[in-house]
Structures are given as structure tokens and as C-alpha cells.
Design brief:
Mean pLDDT: 88
Structural class: mainly alpha
Largest sheet: none
Radius of gyration: 19 Å
Low-confidence stretches: none
Number of strands: 0
Shape: elongated
């Protein structure tokens, strides 16, 4: 019985890795769409990847339900499955926000504005957070999960840098109001994706330790 459970758990891990890879691809494509002339085509690719992410969410949800109903796990096994259910919700939102970025791309590629801010740096840092958060779950790597949480400060700093660069461009009139708002919104979506990666890392910590960092912070604040 335990061997069967372990095999099913391994398939769950593989599915999560696949879904995480799709999220990484969606983010990378959406960031590329902001600076490449074929923005519309790239945005279309992001939309297709988002559909795959939604499908993976349903498949993993079903896998988790089967594990819960057929194996009736307890203790850490139950926490692992519960964490996976929470994680796929965050990954689905990551796909949505990557698609939101891609939708802005066709309006920005007519100007040189995206190339004047460090948007790509922010996108790379965010992709790394998503990659590491899923890896932490699959490897039960507590240290990696905590590194993801710490990396949120890096993404926040990148976001602040993009905001400052946009303000400079507005001041020197090198960017129009609509383009600046669109770029700021795209950067905000990336910042939110980083927040979702932190959520995933926190559920990894819960699955390993039985204690959710957010709950612990709330208790200490009381």
C-alpha cells in the first residue's frame, strides 16, 4: 500500500514540476513580448500556455483528491497533499498574471520605452523564485523555501527600480502617460507573481514542519 502511495506521490511531483515549468515559460514569454516586435504572436503563445496551466491545475486537483480518498493519508503525507492543492491555486494565478502582462505588450512595442527600464531583470528574478519554490516542494528542501521568501526583497527592489526609471522617463518626456502606466502595471503583475512564489514556499514549509510561517507571524504579532 505504501509503495503505491509513493508512486502516486511521485506522479504528483512530476505534474507539479510540469506546471511550474509552464509558469516559468509564461512569465518569460510575456516579458519577451514587451520588447520584441512580434508581440502579438508572443502574447498568443502566452495565452496557449495559460490554457495548459489551467488544465494542469484540474489534473493535479484530481490527483490530490484520489490520494486523499483512496489512501487516506495522515500526518506529513496529508500536509504534502494539502500544500499541493494550495500551490496549484497560486500557480494558476501566476499564469493569469503572465497573460495580463502579455495583453499589454502590443500597446508598448510601438515605442522604445520598455528597453529603457530594467524590466527583464525583474522578470528573471521572478522566474527564479517560481522555479525555486517548486523545486523546494519536490525536494522537501526547507532551506530553498526560505531562500525564496528572502528573494521577494530582490523582486521588490527591482520593482522600485522600475518605478524610479519610469519617473525619470516621464520627467524627461521620453515616455507618454499611457506607456508609463502600462509598464508600471506589467511590473506590478511581476511583483504579484513573486508574492505567489512566496505563498508556494510558505506551503512547502508547512508541508515539512507542520507550521505555516504566516500563521506563526500572526501569532507573534498578537
Amino acid at each position: 500500500m505504501r509503495n503505491q502511495f509513493d508512486r502516486q506521490l511521485e506522479r504528483l511531483h512530476e505534474a507539479l514540476i510540469e506546471m511550474g515549468g509552464l509558469c516559468e515559460r509564461a512569465i518569460s514569454l510575456s516579458a519577451k513580448a514587451l520588447t520584441e516586435p512580434e508581440a502579438a504572436a508572443l502574447a498568443g503563445q502566452v495565452g496557449a500556455v495559460e490554457v495548459e496551466i489551467d488544465q494542469m491545475e484540474h489534473e493535479i486537483e484530481n490527483q490530490c483528491m484520489r490520494l486523499l480518498l483512496q489512501q487516506q493519508p495522515v500526518a506529513r503525507d496529508l500536509r504534502v497533499i494539502s500544500a499541493a492543492l494550495k500551490m496549484i491555486s497560486d500557480m494558476e494565478r501566476i499564469g493569469d498574471q503572465a497573460a495580463d502582462i502579455a495583453e499589454l505588450a502590443p500597446y508598448l512595442t510601438q515605442s522604445e520605452s520598455p528597453g529603457k527600464v530594467h524590466f527583464a531583470d525583474m522578470a528573471r528574478a521572478t522566474v527564479q523564485m517560481v522555479t525555486d519554490s517548486v523545486d523546494a516542494f519536490v525536494r522537501s528542501d526547507l532551506a530553498c523555501a526560505y531562500r525564496v521568501i528572502a528573494s521577494d526583497d530582490v523582486v521588490d527592489a527591482r520593482f522600485d527600480r522600475v518605478k524610479e526609471e519610469l519617473l525619470d522617463l516621464i520627467y524627461t518626456r521620453e515616455i507618454d502617460a499611457k506607456a508609463s502606466l502600462d509598464l508600471l502595471m506589467a511590473a506590478k503583475y511581476l511583483e504579484r507573481i513573486g508574492d505567489h512564489a512566496v505563498n508556494i514556499a510558505e506551503w512547502v514549509i508547512y508541508s515539512i514542519t507542520g507550521s505555516h510561517p504566516k500563521a506563526a507571524r500572526d501569532m507573534s504579532a498578537q
